[in-house]
Write a structure and sequence with these properties.
- By secondary structure, the chain is of the alpha+beta class.
- It folds into two domains: 6-65, no CATH class; 66-130.
- It has four helices and five strands.
- It has helices at residues 37-40, 45-54, 77-83, 117-128; strands at 11-17, 20-27, 67-73, 91-95, 106-113.
- It starts with 10 loop residues before the first strand and ends with a helix.
- 14% of the residues are buried.
- The mean pLDDT is 91.
């Protein structure tokens, strides 16, 4: 961290292939792979971040219930906005407010907490399927 001149939270996304490690992304924030914790855990990664800064107890990160998260890419946005009218109460949509939507650009995510497989399959069929 000192070599980078960086202080604070730094998420590093990497992949391991055989004995090789590939760094994909570095970001000065909690990583989006943990966004499911917003609704799915007793204490989210964002709340834990603030708790650390403030010297507070970390809080438990246990799952509240079985949780699934799906990324929304640019090509999903029109279908997702239509699906919002019929989305089940077990789903939570997070749009990131990006001005430009383009194919394969992450525009948001949907989290399902304590959902049925049928609800998730409807979402996948109506929104994620090309």
């Amino acid at each position: 961290m000192k070599a980078l001149g960086f202080y604070g939270t730094l998420a590093i996304e990497f992949f391991i292939k055989g004995k090789e490690i590939y760094i994909n992304e570095m970001a000065p924030r909690p990583h989006n792979s943990g966004h499911y914790t917003i609704e799915g855990c007793f204490t989210s990664q964002f709340e834990r971040h603030i708790r650390v800064i403030c010297g507070l107890p970390l809080g438990i990160t246990d799952l509240i219930a079985e949780t699934y998260m799906y990324n929304l890419l640019g090509q999903h946005m029109d279908k997702c906005l239509t699906w919002l009218k019929e989305m089940p109460a077990t789903s939570h949509v997070h749009l990131y407010g990006k001005k430009e939507s383009r194919e394969n650009r992450k525009m948001g995510h949907v989290t399902f907490v304590k959902s049925t497989e049928e609800d998730r399959n409807i979402f996948k069929e109506k929104v994620l399927k090309n």
